[in-house]
Amino acid sequence: MDANRLQLNPSNGPLYAGIPTIVTYNGSNFANLVPLKYKYPLLFASIRVHSRLIIQNEGALFLEWQNRHQTKLLPRPLLSAIPLPPPMNEQIASIQSQALELIATATDERSLDDARVASIGKKGTLSLAGALIKDIPNEEKAAFGQSLNAARTAITSAIDEKQAALQEVADKAALSGIDLTLPARALPTGGLHPLTLIRDEAIQILRRMGFALAEGPEIEDEYHCFDALNTPADHPARNEKDTFYFNSGKLLRTHTSSVQIRTMETAAPPIRIIAPGSAYRRDEIDATHLSVFNQLEGLFVDTDVTLPDLKGTLEYFFHEMFGTSTEVRFRPHFFPFTEPSFEIDVKLQIKGQPPRWIEVAGCGMVDPAVFESINATRKDNALDPTKITGFAFGMGLDRLAMIRWGIRDIRLLIENDTRFLSQFA
Ligand code: PHE
User: Fold this and answer.
1) Letter string b/e over residues 257-290, b meaning 16 or more CB atoms within 10 A of that residue's CB
2) Among 56, 95, 119, 299, which residue is least crowded by beta carbons within 10 Å?
3) Are residues 227 and 369 in the same domain?
4) Burial grade of 363 (CB within 10 A; 0-12, 13-18, 19 or more)
């Protein structure tokens, strides 16, 4: 080894832990060496890149050059040019001021983060210096730790301050050109669906007359949907109202009249209920028919319910619903579970079209055969047909909505077209 040609490049600063130092040896440039170990004031440092450089002061100051094959010691005089590392607290002060400098000159989030990583990041200058605490003499550890912490605190708060300042600048830029005194943009408001509106209104009117809400399943059995309603399997009315069957034999109810049965199975007269809900039918879909539609069932059972009660109740209902000038017509009809039976028509008025009657409900006096079949199920005579009478009705809520708002096609109610629906909001 030609010792004369070994030199530390002073322009790259003193040789100390954590700070890259340039060492040239025999013309090779060991750039950016990072010393692994440094002990002061014993002046002991080891540096490793391809090999290891050790400066130590043990009796005499010398430099050891070591690689796999050789270890050579350099006598002190040759090293007189090597600057001694400054004391640890000075090193930390210098790390701190370099970090603060980088933070101060950061122009955006990115460069600020780079400054953070370079100083207090896992492999940052301060963190590497901190790792040396284990090599520091015990009596100096406390002071070393204190100056490390002070530096970390100073750097962290400088980063926080800079971060806030950068954020403020960014916020200002984002807000420039926005006039905060302008009125806010209106948010679109939602509204209830016309079917919900009409159902709630119907419920309100009927509740004022003393009807309570009741309900039953949409997936029904044939007994509640047909047999108990005086419609045995071979009855032609079944065909007319045919529906969707499940493999289990259950079916989607064709009408809400099944709720009449379910109510009478458990309640005793006087019974006054209404049951809004979906009904399903294998119908051709057109301007006044849907295969899934909405009904509202009504049932009044007591000791002396008469046909005038039925007529009065429903006339009152339609006048409340559509106004007293609305024409309502009761037309004789047939239902297996009522006798006599009627269909109710109301005039539908559509702009630019002549008014026409449309059917909105079926109704009638409860057939005594219905009471009898329920008594058989209940195993009592709670609905004694010689003492008990009743009326029932089932209205199509979709049709009521058509009449209320002059809707020309029932399909508009299920298409969810906001141009149509927003008119009700
Ligand atoms: N359930 C009948 C239908 O859906 C309507 C109705 C209900 C008729 C109650 C009479 C009594 O057509």
Assistant:
1) bbbbbbbbeebebebbbbbbbebbbebeeeebeb
2) 56
3) yes
4) buried
pLDDT value of residue 372: 96
pTM given for the model: 0.60
Give the position, in ligand 1's atom list, of the atom nearest the Cα of 394.
7
Per-residue pLDDT reduced to its tens digit, 30-52 = 333 333 233 222 222 333 322 33
- 98 and 241 in a single domain? The answer is no
| Ligand 1 atom nearest to 229, measured from its CA | 1
Final residue of a structural domain among 147, 175, 203: 175
CA of 341 to the centre of ligand 1 (A): 9
What's the domain count of the chain? 3
Decide whether any atom of ligand 1 lies within 6 Å of the 364 Cβ: yes
End-to-end alpha-carbon separation of the chain, Å? 94
User: So what's the pLDDT on residue 87?
Assistant: 66
394: CA distance to ligand 1 center in Å? Answer: 5
Q: Which domain holds residue 307?
A: 194-424
Which helix (H) or strand (E) is 350 found in, with range? Answer: none
349, part of any domain: yes
Per DSSP, the three-state class of 168 is helix
212-259 per-position pLDDT tens digit? 999 999 999 999 999 999 999 888 877 777 788 999 999 999 999 999
Ligand 1 midpoint to CA 310 (Å)? 13
